[in-house]
Design brief:
By secondary structure, this protein is an alpha/beta fold. It folds into two domains: about 5-265, Rossmann fold; about 280-390, no CATH class. It contains 14 helices and ten strands. It has helices at about 25-35, 75-85, 95-100, 105-110, 160-165, 180-190, 210-215, 230-240, 240-245, 265, 295-305, 315-335, 345-360, 370-390, and strands spanning about 45-50, 65, 90-95, 115-120, 170-175, 195-200, 220, 250-255, 285, 290. The chain has an eight-stranded mixed sheet with strand order 2-1-3-4-6-5-8-7, sandwiched between helices. Strands 9-10 form a two-stranded antiparallel ribbon. α6 (about 180-190) links the parallel β5 and β6 (about 195-200). α1 crosses α6, α12 (about 315-335) crosses α13 (about 345-360) and α13 packs across α14. Mean pLDDT is about 80; it is low at about 295-400. The structure holds thiamine diphosphate and iron/sulfur cluster. Thiamine diphosphate binds next to β3 and α3.
């Protein structure tokens, strides 16, 4: 039986905390409308974000979500997509997040043409940190970080950058036109390949230059002017119109789309046998059930720990997996410099703590120091997302704020 989802199914119980009038409300609405129109199953949608006002978006929809760290939403999303290419992976974030600190990931995700939809809420400012210049701030604009002469650098143009980097669906929306934006998002989600929707989303609190009125006076619809989105040269010509050539006309709509380029998932040999989350790992632990999925690989580390960290009795192959999991957790510990709270000197204490977080409630972390709780909670959140994405149809929320 095919289920029918109401619009409200996708809404979460958490209400946005954005300033009244923030452009991000329109982007949220456009995304919700798009996934409703496509009738996507909420448990097959993962929304990943970085850090910023805009990056709070995954909390407000009732799908899977992962609130990652500043500029690192795309690598997390790529990991989720490669672990399970059957998921619809959508990334949301700000211009600072995606075109500033995360710009390297942005370029590489596009050249891979990985099948992810990326919505950038471009307000041309850092909103969350109260109004510093961002990579898309207009030249000359005075901001908290450029109070004297204004911005002296040229802005990044995400549309040209996306075209040059290999994105196969490149569009620009505007929060003053939710209907148009939701069409762009819907088509971006159904597109087979990397899609960028650069959403001009005014920050009503800190950007007094690029306001709704600024855009309303300048935007025009590419489709109405006969632009052919299959023509890459024409797309480049339209892309450079704003902000490079002039400031009076801003094209909106679809600049470029091609379905002729294979995605990373199409070409990656490891995916030929199907989604890795469904693949057996081929590891059997003596006296235990076999390790037959990525999810149970995570439990595998717990098994190692519950065996007192004693690795004797494990096969060489078991060791490899054991070491892989341990190393990852150990690195976290080394970075944080955490003392092990209950087993002196035992690296695997942290492993143990992470397992505790994963298996139970946040209360499991309380015996740790506040730094440990932070680290524990982070590991816990990533871990939950990794396992729940593959296994459980329940929502993932993290309480981390960086
Ligand atoms: C590695 C790192 N550097 C800096 C910050 C501080 N920081 C948090 S949000 C933010 C900028 C947010 O701007 P943007 O991504 O444009 O999102 P907006 O708040 O405007 O939606 C910065 C610099 C951080 N959290 N992590
Ligand atoms: S500060 Fe700006 S970007 Fe952040 S919620 Fe307020 S209006 Fe939106």
């Amino acid at each position: 039986m095919k289920l029918e989802f109401e619009m409200d199914t996708y809404k979460s119980e958490i209400k946005p905390t954005w300033c009244p009038g923030c452009g991000d409300f329109a982007v949220l609405r456009a995304l919700q409308t798009a996934i409703h129109a496509l009738q996507l199953e909420p448990w097959n949608v993962v929304i990943v974000s970085g850090i910023g006002c805009s990056s709070n978006l995954p909390h407000f929809l009732s799908t899977y979500g992962f609130h990652a760290i500043h500029g690192r939403a795309l690598p997390v999303a790529e990991g989720a997509k490669l672990a399970n290419p059957e998921l619809h992976v959508i990334v949301t974030g700000g211009d600072g997040d995606g075109y500033g600190i995360g710009v390297g990931h942005f370029i590489h995700a596009m050249r891979r043409n990985i099948d992810i939809t990326y919505l950038v809420m471009n307000n041309q400012i850092y909103g969350l940190t109260t109004g510093q210049a961002s990579p898309t701030s207009e030249k000359g604009m005075k901001t908290k970080s450029t109070p004297i002469a204004g911005v002296i650098e040229n802005p990044v143009d995400p549309i040209s950058l996306a075209l040059a980097s290999g994105a196969t669906y490149v569009a620009r929306g505007f929060s003053g036109d939710v209907k148009g934006m939701s069409e762009l998002v819907k088509n971006g989600i159904t597109h087979h390949g990397f899609s960028l929707i650069d959403c001009m989303s005014p920050c009503v609190t800190y950007n007094k230059v690029n306001t709704y009125d600024f855009f309303r006076e300048r935007v025009y619809d590419l489709a109405k002017e006969g632009h052919d989105p299959s023509d890459m040269k024409a797309a480049f010509a339209k892309a450079i119109e704003w902000p490079f050539v002039q400031r009076d006309r801003i094209p909106l709509g679809l600049f470029y789309r091609t379905e002729d380029v294979p995605t990373y998932e199409d070409l990656e040999p490891a995916l030929k046998k199907g989604p890795p989350v469904h693949q057996p790992l081929g590891v059997t632990l003596p006296g235990r059930a076999s390790i037959n999925s990525v999810g149970s690989m995570m439990s595998y580390a717990r098994i190692c720990r519950s065996r007192g960290g004693v690795r004797a009795g494990l096969s060489a192959e078991d060791h490899t997996h054991h070491n892989r999991v341990h190393r990852r957790v150990c690195v976290r510990r080394r970075i944080s410099g955490l003392p092990c709270p209950d087993v002196p000197g035992g690296v695997s204490t942290v492993v143990h703590r992470v397992r505790a977080c994963r298996g139970g409630s946040a209360g499991d972390c309380t015996p740790l120091s506040s730094e440990a709780v932070r680290t524990g909670a982070r590991a816990c959140a990533s871990h939950r997302a990794a396992t729940q994405i593959s296994r459980h149809p329940s929502r993932v929320r993290t309480n981390l704020r960086l």
